[in-house]
Amino acid sequence: MNTAPFTSLADLARKAPESGIVEVMNRGRARGGVLGLWAGEGDLPTPRFIIDAATRSMAAGETFYTWQRGIPELRQALADWHAGLYGTAPDMERFTVTGSGMQAIQIAVEAVSDPGGRILVPTPAWPNLAAAAGLRGAVVEAVPMRFAASGWMLDREALADAAARPGTAAIFVNSPSNPTGWVATREDQEFLLDLARRTGAWIIADEVYGLFVYDEAPSVPSPKGRRRAPSFHDIAEPDDRILFVNTFSKNWAMTGWRIGWIEAPAALGQTMENLVQYSTSGVAVFMQRAAIAALESGEGFLDHQIERTTRARGIIADALEKTGRVRGASPHGGFYAFFALEGEKDSRATALRLIDEAAIGLAPGLAFGAGGEAFLRLCFARDPAQISDAAERLTHWISASL
Amino acid sequence: MNTAPFTSLADLARKAPESGIVEVMNRGRARGGVLGLWAGEGDLPTPRFIIDAATRSMAAGETFYTWQRGIPELRQALADWHAGLYGTAPDMERFTVTGSGMQAIQIAVEAVSDPGGRILVPTPAWPNLAAAAGLRGAVVEAVPMRFAASGWMLDREALADAAARPGTAAIFVNSPSNPTGWVATREDQEFLLDLARRTGAWIIADEVYGLFVYDEAPSVPSPKGRRRAPSFHDIAEPDDRILFVNTFSKNWAMTGWRIGWIEAPAALGQTMENLVQYSTSGVAVFMQRAAIAALESGEGFLDHQIERTTRARGIIADALEKTGRVRGASPHGGFYAFFALEGEKDSRATALRLIDEAAIGLAPGLAFGAGGEAFLRLCFARDPAQISDAAERLTHWISASL
Predict the structure, then answer these.
(1) CA-nearest residue of chain A to B132?
(2) Assembly ipTM
(3) In this structure, are B192 and B306 located in the same domain?
(4) Is residue A380 pLDDT above 80, yes or no?
(5) Does any domain span residue A5?
(6) Do B196 and B178 sit in the same domain of this protein?
């Protein structure tokens, strides 16, 4: 019998990192009574009208295989929704439905990078892109952003240097950013697009939080009148090397569903189809019916969610700023406060102390890579009353223990 | 503006093959009136009790993130189901829920092979494993099976030679086989397991069709009295290097749902979790509730489905055998007839002719790799009346046109 069965596991699989948040979550769950704001998830269940669409579809027997890239009705609904948001009229051939935003990222990485390709990531950043790239055998290069009183800024010079080196497959641009709340300006995006055009690198654009922007942020009104972050859609041509990765999770409270999409130049359609075919082979029709309902009838829910998230942001940002001992508590976009506490440099240790001493659970910034080591991430896509509670626990702890 | 946007697409993505069945399906759909038996899918919608479980879960608000590897209740239900089928009592730590059987294969390939690793595939075989391996940058080596009057057989000598060469990461073993209907004997499996133990290669065991076995097949009764194909579960130790990939699609008529599982040595749990995390980050809880219902209350449906599929197999096999001009029409397992017509060597051309001249849609065998070029695949997981119709169309065409 075989006694050393795992020596032959693939290196890339063995090296895939554990989530840097899990240790804190486990400590918090074990302790009990902890207000856990560590995850990137709101507190609202999926709205009823979305669930009903899925229920009707299942009941009607839509339980068979379907189009790998998504049912045409959903791909058209995506095109229409983009038109309403960006004032463009995109071809539905640009859209491919995926089994989560995460899978959109995995597919994007596979599409643009062979093993050994380089992917540039401004950090701090959501770690899953880097991990997915690592599993591909791609080389992830962190390009730390700069943190100043006004917020986070791209290090354009470092990005330009890094992109100019051979083998750069892609630049990952997440704006509004998870975790930092940074919102790219139009000038940032022009710089990045120009860089991509000059070097041949792709941009993987994660604009998932595009509708969550606050007063300080650069923003643009959509044709529908909805405020949104600047987007590469504002400046790019249809055949620019940009892959947009997106999800239904955040806007429509569908985190648990695992449905997202990727938008790519239409000529890549067959490649996208193949990448879906050989990973999950598509998304359930009834899920897609729910997604259509979200796109077509979700504006009221979006208003509600954005309004309460904006209120919650105000509560936590004001409370933390008022202590005078916190940096970075007022994100420009997204739904996270990403802040550093005076004198605290080790976010893992601080996060564990906060569990034990303040019964509040935050994600340690070191999980988000270079530049995040001293920061903590708090998700405020919650009932404002809960965020008031969080603010109280935190400010009390700061004044008592810091 | 960028004028050659796709020259920088990843080679591995560009080389991912299109499905070899699509051309025939497109021709059939364009023509109309074609009885399409090209896909690997039954004609029964998902049973009501399974849908109801999902509906209840959604209505109860189970729409949030959940365990990456699957909810404990489903993993335990999988362990119990395996106990009932194989007479073992597996640890639930062995099971990870995946977003389809296809994704189980993708994860298995990622777990055992780095880019450049070699994966051996007895052919003809379902092409998606090879395509997923190709996307990983693994090298797929076809080891053609031998076709004789008694059916298909492994070429053990060729497998042993191939496995002994350096860099062999895995051997893919699909029994009962899609498309050939081959069912591995216990001796086959002992040979393969011994080979894996001696060479350090993993076995990726696809036993998805294990409950679809016919009179000619080697089979074993399960503790529940259900007839099933021999399984690596019968001979392997828990820490043998075997990854079982499986799906809810076929047994419980859930093809459209995209839910499956992977079974691995328990010590690989964290690796499995990471591979899920960085691909689709789990499966919707309401899907998993449906899967539990399938496992716990699905025996009656399974009886029904196996009975009608067995009847349908008898109809098509008898009709084709009777012509005296067909080889291979009596599969030992699975739910496909994979047969060659006298004098016809080019399955693509034959499949297209059958669309035009007999209004029947079959999958061309060349889509399944070396050894399949002359064969056609017909899915008989259908209403026996429909399979009678198919038999008539085919036998009429054979006597009129062959």
Answers:
(1) A278
(2) 0.95
(3) no
(4) yes
(5) no
(6) yes
Q: In which band, very low, low, confident or very high, does the pLDDT at A226 lie, cut at 50, 70 and 90?
A: confident
User: Full-prediction pTM beyond 0.90?
Assistant: yes
The 10s digit of each residue's pLDDT in B178-227 is 999 999 999 999 999 999 999 999 999 999 999 999 988 888 888 878 89
CB contact residues (below 8 A), chain B span 234-293, against chain A: 237, 239-241, 253-258, 265, 267-268, 270-271, 273-275, 277-287
pLDDT for the residue B11:
92
- AA letter at B39: A
B128 → chain A, closest CA residue: A278
Looking at the DSSP bridge assignments, the partners of residue A35 are A360
Contacts of B284 in chain A (CB under 8 A): 256-258, 287
- Which of A13, A257, A270 shows the shortest C-beta gap to B18? A270
Number of helices (H) and strands (E) in chain A: give both, helices first.
Answer: 13, 17
- Average pLDDT along chain A: 95
Report chain A residues whose CB lies below 8 A from the CB of B115: 12, 115, 137
Cα end-to-end span (Å), chain A: 57
Q: What is the span of the domain harbouring residue A93?
A: 60-296
**Bridge partners for B361 per DSSP:** B36
Task: Please state the length of chain B.
Answer: 402
Judging by beta carbons within 10 Å of its beta carbon (0-12, 13-18, 19+), is residue A239 exposed, middle or buried? Answer: middle
**B68/B108 same-domain check:** yes
The nearest alpha carbon in chain A to B168 belongs to A8
CATH classification of the domain holding A28: 3.90.1150.10
Q: Would residue B223 count as lying in a domain?
A: yes
Are A32 and A69 found together in one domain? no
Q: Among B65, B201, B275, select the one facing A13 at the smallest CB separation.
A: B275
Calculate the average pLDDT of chain B: 95
Alpha carbon distance B402, B400 (integer Å) = 6
Query: Which pLDDT belongs to residue A6?
Result: 54
> Of A82, A100, A97, nearest to A228 (Cα)?
A82
B55 CB neighbours in chain A (<8 A) are 55, 58-59
Which chain B residues contact residue A270 at CB under 8 A? 18
Q: Mutation target for B interface from A126, A242, A280, A301: give the one with most B CBs within 10 A.
A: A280
